Amino acid sequence: MSDNTLSPATAPAADVAPPVPGKVAELADRAHMGFIKSHLRDYGLTLSLFAIMLFFELVTGGTLLRPLNLTNLVLQNSYIVIMALGMLLVIVSGHIDLSVGSVAGFVGAVAAVLMVQYHLDFVSASILCLILGGLIGAAQGYWIAYFGIPSFIVTLAGMLVFKGLALAILHGQSLGPFATTFQKLSSGFIPELLPNTGGHFFTSILLGVILALAMVALSIRGRLRQMSHKIDVEPVAFFAIKNLLLFAVITYFAVQIASHHGLPNVLIIMTILIVLYGFMTQRTVVGRQIYAVGGNVRAAKLSGIRTERLTFLTFVNMGALAALGGLVFAARLNTATPKAGQGFELEVIAACFIGGASAYGGVGKVAGVVVGALIIGVLNNGMSIMGVGIDYQQVLKGLVLLGAVCIDVYNQKR
Amino acid sequence: MTAILEMRGISKSFTGVKALRDVSFSVEKGEIHALCGENGAGKSTLMKVLSGVHPHGSYEGQILFEGVERQFRDINDSEALGIIIIHQELALIPLMSIAENIFLTRTPARLGVIDQGEVYARTRELLRKVGLTEAPDTLITNIGVGKQQLVEIAKALSKQVKLLILDEPTASLNENDSQALLDLLLEFKAQGISSILISHKLNEVSRVADRITVLRDGRTVDTMDCREGGVDEDRIIRKMVDRDLEHRYPTRENPQIGAPVFEVRDWVVHHPLHPDREMVKNVSMHVRRGEIVGIAGLMGAGRTEFAMSLFGRSYGTRIGGTATLHGKPLDLSSVPRAIDAGLAYVTEDRKALGLLLGEDIRKNVSLANLAGVSSRNVIDDINEMRVADRYRDRMRIRSHSIYQDTGKLSGGNQQKVVLSKWLFTDPEVLILDEPTRGIDVGAKYEIYCIIQELADQGKGVIVISSEMPELLGITDRIYVMNEGRFVGEFPAAEATQERIMRAIMQDAARGASGQPVPQQGKDARETAREGALTP
């Protein structure tokens, strides 16, 4: 249709009141308040993370933010973050995947068998394992998407199946160690490219600073673009503070982590994935459609979205990311054990819900999930340093999850 | 005779829409009082006021039951006095037994332990009263709709009913079951139980009713006493439809109607869960370039099923027939293909099937044509925003910005968002299913204007509506549908509400001779939704 042919319909009565000039200032104030209110969740979550970090930093006498510990934090949580990215899509599309822990464990076991027993090189083995993960996701997604079997049940079955299979192919025993090349996936650091740095890791520091600058540049570009099209933007003070903080925080952590051994390889993988999935969820057609399916599957279907195929693909994606998580974890332990992956699904799902994803589907952001995963990671790490037993660690994590979701529900009801 | 029920000056409005205006209505002891009127005339609302679904304080006026003013807070209050309503959609639990359903509440029990013997004995007694011989432990799902209806009545009897309200009780029953049910009402009457009967089947109404009250646009038009004679179906129909049609519809000035755009031949659709039940029977129709075609009919006639089956087989199984656009056969086997073919379907249930209520206007408008705002599968958010802004202006969607969630808009504005979404797919044929349901008068007028302008641009428009004046007011030609068939076709100039109603009633009378009647619209909609979830 040409765009100008439809003139505004002539209504007998219009129900909009004309704006009163004196109220403009008040309206602008309200807009600011509205902006803060509507973004309170995003800010609040990040602030909570900082508060928790600050708390443990003080309680542990500065251990938390030491370079060595920060590196550990990254290594300990990388596989959770990686899997949480896949889980976010699953949850946004209105489903759940309980099998990710077992799948990760199973794929780790397969990797060990391939590399340790059959001496396959780590590149081929890793690729095979990722494909295997995708196939596992496809096998589960098929029943969920095309037969309408609840994902809870299918993946509960998958959880049992792959836990069992991992036990079976490992004959109940640990298998390892891996070749050092594969270990690098988890415990390696990016090489120092600059000559004569005298024990400093300038390449890593530089990378961190470049990343921070890129983030700030992107956000300024987005704001300018929005302003040039007269879109409402957040108040300039907020914007400045937010970006300054963003820059400071990224640079600080990059420098801190880098001063240990340089940036870990897995951090690079993680960062690339986070950027990729962030872009995918916010800007691509597929991303938009996944949110639509979770928001109202029937309306999405009647709008021409192939809802079944999309659901299927989110599970394929989840399987592949669970496999990657499994590889990273196996590389970190340097051995595949039948118990690997146990309980991952709970941490991954908790990360999504703490990060603001809705259990009803259609809502959730990559940034939120990453922060959610970090909150759990810092809690784990901080409490371990403090010497809190695994028992009360779980109690506290449970309460944090419940609290985060309660705050969400409360906010929505207001 | 003494009045068991008197409702005086009842008025009720829903967010700006007046559903009932100063309605007075009374039922005498041992009387069958029929309530007639078009869809949306206010019958169900009046009964909800009476039964306490709309509690005291949410309406104006007085309710006197057995001579005392009553203020019902909820349905339990009215049931306690013996006012029992049996809804169109039966409220039975399919996988529980007859006895369990009848005694779902007030279960005979000792210390919380159900007295099984007592339950069964009383169930048998109640079933005998309604003429059923089924065992009390038969599951509801294993008996037919007619018998389920009787179980509902048995359930009402278990609550010491004094006033029984039946909302379209025979709509899904065949002739024999309908007769049995009406005989039962006459029997109750002899026992002194009063009934209110809501029905579209005027032959049944005139057979059993003592008095008939006709509602129209939320007002009482007339109460006729059948015992005095002179009440026939024509008179009831005239009372039901007579109204002022001026100024509610934009005038249609010399429509430019061209060659047929979209044609459907011998379209057959079967029920998705009961594949041997035909929901749409050999329907053939066409719409011309620039033409607005209406499909009239009562709820449950099969219009939505027909439309949704056309739109990418979104409803039904074993779909047969051909559809052509400009004479070329169309592939409508999936929704994306139907959209590509140039079809758009604006659903009757915009909240459940039309909108992402948690997303803003912008994301809803682009949803069906994301390719139109993206390049290489990446959404151009500025472009998307412009599109949404353009439609917001053109459709006059009242909102503070395109970033407002659609769940927070009024019904009329929500409908405009859905329309925008489909216009952005640039369709050749638009099917609008109940486009003005639940929308206030001003917004209705705007939607009518939009529909007319679309036709003026050369699109073929099909409007499904249960409001006959609306069809008469805006369309060029009207098909009449009943029980899955097209039973009449009128140029709008020759059509009147009475002619349409008569076409439906005549067919209903024919259909009543033995044929099972299709399920209610509600049922169809629900199965359509189920169908949308599973292939």
TrEMBL record, chain B:
<keyword id="KW-1003">Cell membrane</keyword>
<dbReference type="Pfam" id="PF00005">
    <property type="entry name" value="ABC_tran"/>
</dbReference>
<keyword id="KW-0547">Nucleotide-binding</keyword>
<feature type="domain" description="ABC transporter">
    <location>
        <begin position="5"/>
        <end position="242"/>
    </location>
</feature>
<keyword id="KW-0762">Sugar transport</keyword>
<keyword id="KW-0813">Transport</keyword>
<dbReference type="InterPro" id="IPR027417">
    <property type="entry name" value="P-loop_NTPase"/>
</dbReference>
<dbReference type="InterPro" id="IPR017871">
    <property type="entry name" value="ABC_transporter-like_CS"/>
</dbReference>
<keyword id="KW-0677">Repeat</keyword>
<keyword id="KW-1278">Translocase</keyword>
<dbReference type="InterPro" id="IPR050107">
    <property type="entry name" value="ABC_carbohydrate_import_ATPase"/>
</dbReference>
<dbReference type="GO" id="GO:0005524">
    <property type="term" value="F:ATP binding"/>
</dbReference>
<keyword id="KW-0067">ATP-binding</keyword>
<dbReference type="InterPro" id="IPR053466">
    <property type="entry name" value="L-arabinose_ABC_transporter"/>
</dbReference>
<feature type="domain" description="ABC transporter">
    <location>
        <begin position="264"/>
        <end position="508"/>
    </location>
</feature>
<protein>
    <submittedName>
        <fullName>Sugar ABC transporter ATP-binding protein</fullName>
    </submittedName>
</protein>
<feature type="region of interest" description="Disordered">
    <location>
        <begin position="508"/>
        <end position="535"/>
    </location>
</feature>
<dbReference type="InterPro" id="IPR003439">
    <property type="entry name" value="ABC_transporter-like_ATP-bd"/>
</dbReference>
<dbReference type="InterPro" id="IPR003593">
    <property type="entry name" value="AAA+_ATPase"/>
</dbReference>
<keyword id="KW-0472">Membrane</keyword>
